[in-house]
Amino acid sequence: MSKKKLLYIHGFRSSAQSSTILNIKANYLGVEVHAIDVTHHPVESIKMIEKYIADHDIDILAGTSLGGFYTLCANVDIPKIAVNPAINPETSLRHLPEIGQEVEYFNPRADGVQTFTCSVEDLEEFVGIEKHITPDTHIVGSSHDEMLGDLRPQYRQLAGDHFHESNQLGHRITPEFIAIPTGDFYKVLLQFL
To answer: What's the number of domains the chain is made of?
Structure first.
């Protein structure tokens, strides 16, 4: 029996080589994990995700933070799991010290680009981007997200009964919660395997 294919989308300033993605690949051996590099440009990134899913016959889409936002916005008919998604990046990213500065990506990227600048004007690209919430869209949201704050009410409004509150997470999925089979993300993923 072939493994289900999971496409995992990294967050802001990260890459397909993020520690979250590498830990998922190392620990979820029953899943074929795919990852691609996206940017802070939403239209381009969402189109890239949708094309990758179609070209590689992906079964499940997941992502964290900005990758969670892209997960919610991808117009695809497969299960989606957004972990602490930045549901309004045009405002939630605006106060980051990196905005307007040239910064390095946290991890190596396939295109070799290691620095970028996200301007306040770039954040306007997020305004009006539509979320595609399907019956198989799930949100895993932290009870104590140090980056985005408490978005649990908004997550509940978006996902209804498919909102899963986690007291294991901060903003990111830490390696110890990826490695255990009772991790909140894995429990949601398990529904689709």
So the answer is: 1
Tens-place pLDDT, residues 109-166: 999 999 999 999 999 999 999 999 999 999 999 988 988 999 999 999 999 999 999 9
Which CATH number covers residue 182?
3.40.50.1820
Domain with 126, as residue range(s), is 4-192
Q: How many helices (H) and strands (E) does the chain have?
A: 8, 8
The one-letter amino acid at 104: E
59 C-beta neighbours (distance < 10 Å), count:
18
Q: Report how far residue 68's alpha carbon sits from residue 188's, in angstroms, rounded to the nearest whole number.
A: 14
CA distance to 17, 63, 109, 136, 171, per residue, from 20 (Å): 8, 10, 15, 22, 12
pTM, 2 dp: 0.96
- What's the rounded Cα separation, in Å, for the pair 130 and 99? 23
What would the two tokens of residue 63 be? 């992502």
